[in-house]
Amino acid sequence: MGEVIDIHTHPAFFEAICPNEELLEQRRQALGLYKAGATSLAHIHNQMQCAGIDRLALLPLDLTTQENQFIVSNEEIRQLADLDPRRFIGFASVDPYRPDAADALEHAFGNLGLAGLKLHPSRQNFSPSSSMLDPIYAICLRYNKPIIFHAGMSLEPNTSMRYSNPLEFEPVAARYPKLRICLAHFGFPWVLETAALLLKYPNMYADTSLLYFDSAREFYDHVFKRILGEYWIDRSLRHQVMFGSNNPRFEQIRMVEALRNIGWRAGTLDLVLGQNALEFLG
Amino acid sequence: MFFHKRNTLLTNQYNQFILITDEVIAAVRESGVRNGLVAVISSHTTTGIMVNEALECLESDIDNALKRLVPEDHPYAHARILRSYGSTAGNASGHLKSMLTGYSCLFPVVDGRIVKGEAQEIYFMEFDGPSQRSYTITVQGE
Question: Which residues of A touch B (CB under 8 A)?
Fold first, then answer.
């Protein structure tokens, strides 16, 4: 059994970067996770061990121009990744409207050594195919870094579904065939659109961080075996789907368990749970 | 006299039996109460406080009995997004197991010592771990 990587987690409540209750409350409101508490590194390790997860990708969010705040900065991500380099993979975020966006991203990749970029068009309020993003995409290509795009619905405040339909990302995938991009949350509710895009564009990935209804087993069965054809991922998309949890909004332990029992071939499970993430990260 | 303390712990398994008898005995001693009652109360709704004999075989039987009564895979109404939390509630089984074990226990204190049967041990029961948990020990008397 190979390494298990959770490609989609939000470390906003990690104790090491939550020094006071005021900041904790600010992050609760910003993420719409109203009862989240500060979590110790020991607890995070326990959660990972119980779920059988070896590494976590930690995602920040730069909302400088839209909300005058970061929900975890690139520097905080570096700080967390340095706490446990074996387990944590740090991503960068940049607000494309910032006049210094390109410089900030160069710094995140060149100096902070972050592993990829997280962008959230719905909350950062931009179209992924806007020419404003071209310098950002060029930097990702130059550093060979992937992008995780929020796609589909979001439970966060100040976040509509505008710019989150998977079809918004097709021009990017087509224009930049060497740019690896992931549609987070499998683009729910547009999961058929996501599946179609994955089939056509080998540089597109999707993660499994969707648990909007029911239990993990029930929802994964519904999405991956009834909305999508039962064999589509196992036969055709097995190299492009990555395990992601969206923790702490969704629960890692039961999500991993549900995927392990979904009926895919063992080789497909290894790909989805870790190997695809390694390919994606480059 | 009234004595009250909160103990915290990090659980590291999904379902876990944690013996806390020694902590309760120590709290009774620390309280200075000679004659009264000691109450142990969990602060959560997916944990329990259970009194039983601390044998490996019984822990296994109790764990299996709880799993038979409350299977993980069942269409629980609680399996949904809770708007007040902003997150998914996938822990119905934890709530139901907590209901079965109860969330507290009570023992007499006589001559400064807890009065309990030879086989009785006190467990903190985790039903939705790993997590950061706490329970209180309250000693009241004279």
Answer: 31-37, 39-40, 42-43, 46-47, 49-50, 155, 211-218, 248-251, 253-254
pLDDT at A2: 87
Question: How does pLDDT run across A76-98, given as a tens digit for each residue?
Answer: 999 999 999 999 999 999 999 99
Task: Please tell me the distance in Å from B105's CA to the nearest CA on chain A.
Answer: 27
Q: Mean pLDDT over all residues of chain A?
A: 97
Q: For B91, name the nearest residue in chain A, comparing CA atoms only.
A: A215
Domain boundaries, chain B: 2-141
Give the CATH number for residue A39: 3.20.20.140
| Residues of chain B where predicted confidence (pLDDT) is lower than 50 | none
- Structure token digits, residue A192: 């058929």
B80–A42 CB contact, under 8 Å: no
Q: What percent of chain B has pLDDT over 90?
A: 97
Q: So what's the architecture of B2-141 in CATH?
A: Sandwich (2.60)
Q: Cis (ω within 30 of 0) for the bond into A166? A: no
Whole-number Å distance between alpha carbons of A69 and A52: 34
Question: Do the Cβ atoms of B86 and A31 come within 8 Å?
Answer: yes
In this prediction, residue A226 carries a pLDDT of 97
CB A185 within 8 A of CB A156: no
What are φ and ψ of residue A243, in 5° steps? Answer: -70, 130
E strand or H helix at A254: helix A252-260
Domain count for chain A, please give it: 1
Whether the CB-CB separation of A128 and A182 falls below 8 Å is answered with no
Integer Cα distance of A79 and A90 in angstroms? 9
CB A154 within 8 A of CB A123: yes
In angstroms, the separation between the Cα of residue B56 and the nearest Cα of chain A is: 21
pLDDT tens digits for range B106-130: 999 999 999 999 999 999 999 999 9
A42: domain range? 5-281
pLDDT at A1 over 80: no
Q: What is the pLDDT of residues A252-265, one digit of tens each?
A: 999 999 999 999 99
DSSP string, chain B: -EEEEEEEEE--SSSEEEE-HHHHHHHHHHH--SSEEEEEEES-SSEEEEEE---HHHHHHHHHHHHHHS-SSS--TT-EEETTTTEEE--HHHHHHHHHH-SEEEEEEETTEE---TT-EEEEEESS-S-EEEEEEEEEE-
Contact assessment for residue A126 and residue A97, using Cβ atoms and an 8 Å cutoff:
yes
